[in-house]
Specification:
seven-stranded mixed beta sheet; 39% helix; globular
Length: 821
């Protein structure tokens, strides 16, 4: 039983090792397998010497009946300053490659060691100078983890030597300023000025900017392996959410032909504690999110702010999550620069060989607290006694190498930079048309989005003709036939057809399109059928294939946070493409609210990152229960300011067509949030004529009827009100507010001019405490010059009732009161 416990039933080679141990050759194999699986537990990974020795069974040769010297080679390979955690990897080729690297000979190059020594000494000098010349300034320094500089910089150098032209990454704020100055090439003067509080941009630009340790950077750096264009994504305080953003941009750059080395920089507490990392690891092997492997570099300080490891996770190490996807983990003693050099080389080589993720966990410590004014000795006294007793790493490494660090030139440059930073101000103003004071006016200006009917019919034939041999399901065949007939007749264009024509027209004009989400290919409501599956073979056909530009239409895992971050990052890089993310239901945005709040809403305001990402959020109180009723428009609208995003709730397929095309045809780029329909996908009142697609977007749609009451509404309710008004013959004029933000006050004012004395009603299907009116109330009053009456469901903690009969009754009450009350 002891053998099976040690070797692990089901692990590669376990049964062979167990049964073959009785022979000398079998014993050697078992010994080797034990070290390959468990040797990392006995590795030298405790730079502070505080850890309890781990009892690792079956690592002594005597228990196998072998001479102790038999274990020496394996102990040297697996129990040094790198711990090779690879026993969870099932693929034989990858395991063999990793064991070959672990057991192969390796010696650091003298030039690399001298370079590493100087880099470590420069990092220590920079951090000490910050502390001396700017006492109390928050920089979230790297002091105590200078080996991370060697790891990161050598990864970049090896990537460049291997042919990479770009390095794109999402990072962390730990040691951000030091990394920027010593690895990524940001001028020291700017870094010091940032830390002193000098704005990154002039106030006249209109940007809010961000904390110095959250700012990104892009530029070219010279590494020992060659030049690299580096882009470090800016990030919010909840730092792990930036990793998928960086990888999304890396994917876009790769599609544009760049040879990209993607990196994700983590800290221990964030990697182990934030679920977005597990999501991101799961995405890595899926074709729509493949970036050819990511090098994950984790800085493990052995404490998160004040939270110790025993409080931060139940897993053995902060890297355990990576094992879910059989990602190799290299645990590295951060106080061994040679091990940092070797781990960097292995990580880049593994990614190159297999196109897969690898994680390097560098174990280090913080000489200061979480920030420079925090006192860590309150909560970690033993740890900090050990830290205080350690000489600087540069001194210990220099003694090991027998040569001093050469930092005199850097010391001089640092002094010059600190002096110059006192008077530094931005000497160039970046272009930021999206932040101009009249940006809302620009966003409301007409955009040419119409497409001639003849061209639309040609595109419609392309969308409905299947290749020979593709036999669709009868219902899909009927769907395509109805679509073809509607386009040819020029009548009855439904929502999905308008969407397909918008996408096809953009593709035909050379704009790539990327559309993904949960069950998006077919459509969660069986409305899209973008890919037709043959019923007799394994073949399928994407209806957009064969047009000028490529289309990516795909389903995603049942996750939102990492996916939305990836698509946002992709939209930053693929500026000539229409990028669309669809939620299965609008309230699924709840799960990726940090991506919405910290990137989509304010990415341009904080970091000058314009995005044209489109979010489709199915919305409507349609009897599906509280969880599938709302995209929470009240939250969306509360985030609107300074023309940062667009929010629309459309009632016609034609307006949907124009809204999508406007994303690529406008001379500005802003995220577009669409409260997508469910009921209207098949409602007979939500159809457009083909010639409507030749027109343009309409932010306000008014019927112009004379009446004593005007009811203003949006989206689905607008269609239901019109159908019911016409059925009842009610004396009511209806106005549809199609775009909620930016609010087209001129168009709305013009629609109201015919009703100077009419009663004004805002009607919504959402509960009183949700929806739009809380945001619109005073704005509508200012436009009309008088108050509006609200017709709505009663306020409720839940977005809707559970039983459909209750919801239907409340909707009838809203319609009755709006038309007759």
């Amino acid at each position: 039983m002891r053998d099976t416990e040690v070797l692990g039933a089901g692990d590669p080679g376990a049964l062979e090792a167990l049964l073959g141990r009785s022979t000398e050759m079998g014993a050697r194999r078992a010994l080797a397998e034990a070290y390959r699986r468990w040797g990392w537990l006995a590795a030298d990974l405790d730079p502070l010497g505080l850890g309890q020795p781990v009892v690792v069974p079956d690592l002594d040769a005597i228990s196998y009946g072998l001479d102790p010297s038999e274990a020496a080679v394996f102990r040297s390979a697996y129990c040094g300053a790198i711990g090779w955690e690879i026993g969870h990897i099932q693929d034989p080729a990858r395991r063999a490659w990793l064991t070959g690297m672990a057991e192969g000979s390796w010696q650091p190059q003298p030039t690399d060691r001298r370079w590493a020594l100087n880099l470590i000494a420069e990092g220590e000098l920079l951090e000490a100078t910050f502390d001396r010349r700017m006492p109390g300034a928050k920089t979230f320094g790297l002091s105590g983890a200078e080996g991370y500089l060697v790891l990161l910089a050598h990864v970049l150098a090896r990537g460049a030597a291997g042919g990479a032209t770009h390095a794109i990454m999402g990072g962390m704020h730990r040691g951000r300023l030091t990394q920027m100055g010593l690895v990524f090439g940001k001028p020291l003067v700017r870094i010091i000025a940032d830390a002193r509080g000098v704005p990154e941009y002039p106030q006249s630009l209109g940007a809010s900017s961000d904390s110095p340790y959250h700012l990104g950077w892009g530029g070219q750096v010279e590494t020992p392996g060659g030049a690299l264009d580096v882009w470090m994504a800016p990030h919010p305080s909840h730092l792990s959410v930036v990793a998928p953003v960086g990888l999304g941009r890396a994917r876009a750059a790769q599609e544009a032909g760049a040879r990209v080395l993607p990196l994700a920089l983590h800290t221990d507490a964030a990697f182990a504690g934030q679920g977005v990392n597990a999501e991101l690891l799961q995405l890595a092997g899926l074709p729509p999110f493949d970036v050819g492997g990511t090098v994950h570099l984790m800085l493990d300080n052995q404490v998160g702010f004040t939270t110790g490891e025993e409080e931060a996770r139940t897993a053995r190490t902060s890297a355990d999550m990576a094992k879910l996807t059989e990602t190799p983990v290299l645990h590295v003693n951060g106080d061994d620069p040679d091990a940092c050099l070797r781990a960097a080389e292995i990580a880049v080589a593994y990614r190159t060989a297999f196109g897969s993720d690898i994680l390097v966990r560098l174990i280090a410590y913080r000489r200061k607290g979480h920030n420079e004014i925090d006192q860590p000795r309150f909560t970690q006294p033993a740890m900090y006694r050990a830290i205080d007793a350690l000489p600087p790493l540069s001194l210990r490494y220099a003694e090991r190498l027998g040569l001093p660090a050469a930092v005199a030139d850097f010391r001089d440059a640092l002094d010059v930079a600190f002096d110059a930073a006192k008077d530094w101000r931005p000497n160039t103003v970046p272009a930021a048309p999206g932040l101009s004071e009249d940006v809302e006016t620009s966003m409301l200006a007409p955009v040419e989005t119409g497409v001639p009917e003849t061209r639309l019919r040609n595109l419609g034939r392309h969308l409905t003709n299947l290749p020979d041999g593709i036999i669709p399901h009868p219902k899909v065949a009927e769907f395509l036939a109805n679509r073809h007939a509607a386009i040819e007749a020029g009548e009855g264009i439904d929502w999905a057809t308008a969407e397909a024509l918008a996408i096809a027209s953009l593709l035909d004009e050379g704009h790539p399109v990327r559309l993904g989400g949960q069950d998006t290919v077919r459509g969660a409501f069986t409305q899209r059928h973008a890919r037709v599956h043959c019923q007799n073979t394994a073949r399928s056909h994407l209806i957009f294939d064969g047009l000028t530009a490529p289309a990516q239409v795909f389903n995603t895992p049942l996750t939102e946070n990492a996916v939305l971050g990836f698509e946002y990052g992709y939209s930053l890089g693929a500026t000539g493409a229409l990028t669309v993310w669809e939620a299965q239901f609008g309230d699924f945005l709840n799960v990726c609210q940090p991506m919405f709040d910290q990137f989509l809403v304010c990415g341009e305001d904080r970091w000058l990152l314009p995005s044209g990402l489109v979010l489709l959020l199915p919305h409507g109180v349609d009897g599906g229960g509280p969880d599938h009723a709302t995209a929470h428009p009240e939250r969306l609208l509360a985030a609107c300011a300074k023309g940062n995003i667009q929010v629309v709730n459309l009632s016609t397929p034609a307006n949907y067509f124009h809204a999508l095309r406007r994303q690529m045809k406008a001379d500005w780029r802003k995220p577009l949030i669409i409260l997508a329909p469910k009921t209207l996908l098949r409602h007979p009142g939500a159809k457009s004529r083909l010639r409507d697609l030749s027109g343009s977007f309409r932010s306000v749609i008014a019927d112009g009827r004379p009446a004593k009451r005007v009811v203003l509404s949006t989206g689905k309710l607008s269609v239901l009100l019109e159908a019911e008004r016409d059925k009842r013959g009610a004396d009511v004029a209806l106005i549809r507010l199609e775009q909620l933000y930016p609010l087209d006050t001129h168009a709305l004012s013009a629609a109201l001019t015919s009703y100077p004395d009419a009663e004004l009603v805002w009607a919504q299907e959402e509960p009183e405490n949700m929806g739009y009116f809380g945001w619109l109330d005073r704005k509508l009053e200012a436009i009309a010059g008088r108050r509006w009456r609200l017709v709505t469901r009663p306020a409720s903690p839940s977005a809707s009732a559970g039983p459909k009969t209750w919801d239907d009754a409340r909707l009838r009450a809203v319609i009755d009161e709006a038309l007759e009350g």
